[in-house]
Write a structure and sequence with these properties.
This protein is mainly alpha-helical. It has 2 domains: 42 residues, no CATH class; 140 residues, no CATH class. 45% of the residues lie in helices and 6% in strands. A 3-stranded antiparallel beta sheet has the order 1-3-2. α2 packs across α4. It is elongated, with a radius of gyration of 21 Å. The relative contact order is 0.15. The structure holds zinc ion. Zinc ion binds next to loops.
């Protein structure tokens, strides 16, 4: 498929041009009368800051509950009852609990955003999906890169997150680093 805007060749599955970012419509080559029934273009819109914020909020609640339950089951590391005790055992418990929640958050985001749903539960609830720069499903590796790039997005007063409100393709900083887009799916 060739881009109508800049003419560069793109994958047939691509929703966006990899060179200029223009929306691509997969029009049939055959333009006989039979084919002239108007086909609505694929509905793809970039998701802005507030939709993404609501999805983020839902995911944070879900992750908080899941991590809390798993931490409790695994023996209550992190200390629900021993905050006064700051011995080495308690410190080890906190470190274990923190690395545990880092792994859970990573797997939650990377597995779900690279799955066929292309979304976490929060994004599904709002109707968002994560794609590569050409609108295709992302790999687990790319989803992992996207997830950990959020550390950089969060560094300077969350400016990397706010960038989703004003960049050309509504990308947060971690989307730019990972080469991803967040689209409205309905
Ligand atoms: Zn193009």
């Amino acid at each position: 498929m060739f881009c109508p805007q800049c003419g560069s060749e793109n994958d047939d599955q691509a929703l966006f041009c990899k060179t200029c970012g223009a929306k691509l419509t997969n029009l049939p080559e055959d333009t006989s009368l039979q084919q002239q029934i108007p086909v609505p273009p694929p509905r793809v819109d970039y998701a802005g800051f507030w939709r993404r914020f609501v999805a983020f909020f839902i995911d944070a609640i879900i992750l908080g509950i899941v991590t809390g339950i798993l931490t409790f089951i695994s023996g209550g590391y992190g200390g629900f009852n021993n905050y006064a005790d700051f011995g080495p055992g308690h410190l080890a418990g906190i470190m274990f609990s923190n690395s545990f929640s880092i792994v859970i958050a990573w797997l939650y985001y990377a597995l779900m955003e690279s799955s066929s749903r292309q979304a976490t539960l929060g994004k599904m609830a709002i109707g968002l999906l994560v794609t590569d720069m050409e609108g295709r499903r992302i790999t687990f590796m790319r989803a992992t890169g996207r997830h950990f790039s959020k550390i950089i997005s969060g560094m300077i007063l969350m400016i990397g997150y706010f960038m989703a409100g004003f960049t050309a393709r509504k990308q947060a900083l971690h989307d730019m680093i990972a080469g991803t887009l967040v689209l409205v799916s309905r």
